[in-house]
Amino acid sequence: MYRYVGGILVTSTLDVSDPCYSRTVKHRLSNVEVKQGSYNCFYRLVKTSLGLKICCSSISYDDMERLPSPIRFDETDEVLGKIFVDSGTAGFFSTPFVEYSDEEWDKLCDDIRERSYYYAYPGTFFTCSGYGDGCYEVKCKRDSEGRIIALCIVFINEDEII
């Protein structure tokens, strides 16, 4: 089941990363060029052998012509790259990327625990990362002009869903 959690505004580039990584860490996607505008944020909650988990989080360009609905990704979609996760969370961050102080990070972690799965605020959307720490593919979709209009972090593959 996909859940819509709001939107973020992206000026031209964004980072896809574990939110605890600084911009100097190489295991992230930095300055990804996307179509400028508002993006809808979704996560997909699924049943696995270990209980309910987020299998993916995604953002998609809001064309304002229809109600927000997730763009579905599959094995045929372009893989933009991979990210590593060490905090059990990952997401999308409109640049410039905000590096959190220890106090700010503790507050964000508390907020995630209260919401159970996600955190969203202007320019930022991130979720728990499926089974937790690991290496995850980031997929994208492009418009007819070649601009990225949707991104998805895949935490759990379809064959692991019950």
Can you walk through the features of this model?
There is one protein chain. The chain has 162 residues and is mostly beta strands. The chain has one domain (2-160). 9% of the residues lie in helices and 50% in strands. It has one helix at residues 102-115, and strands at residues 2-10, 13-17, 29-33, 37-48, 51-61, 78-85, 89-94, 118-121, 124-128, 134-142, 148-154. Strand 8 (118-121) and strand 9 (124-128) form a beta hairpin. The longest helix is centred in the C-terminal third of the chain and has 14 residues, at 102-115. It is globular. It starts with a strand and ends in an 8-residue tail after the last strand.
Task: Tell me the β content.
Answer: over 45%
What does the radius of gyration come to? 15 Å
Report the principal-axis shape.
globular
Strand order within the widest beta sheet: 1-4-5-11-10-6
Total domains, how many? 1
Helix/strand structural class: mainly beta
Give me the secondary-structure topology.
Layout: E1 2-10, E2 13-17, E3 29-33, E4 37-48, E5 51-61, E6 78-85, E7 89-94, H1 102-115, E8 118-121, E9 124-128, E10 134-142, E11 148-154
Briefly say what this structure is.
This protein has 162 residues and is mainly beta. The chain has one domain. It is 9% helix and 50% strand.
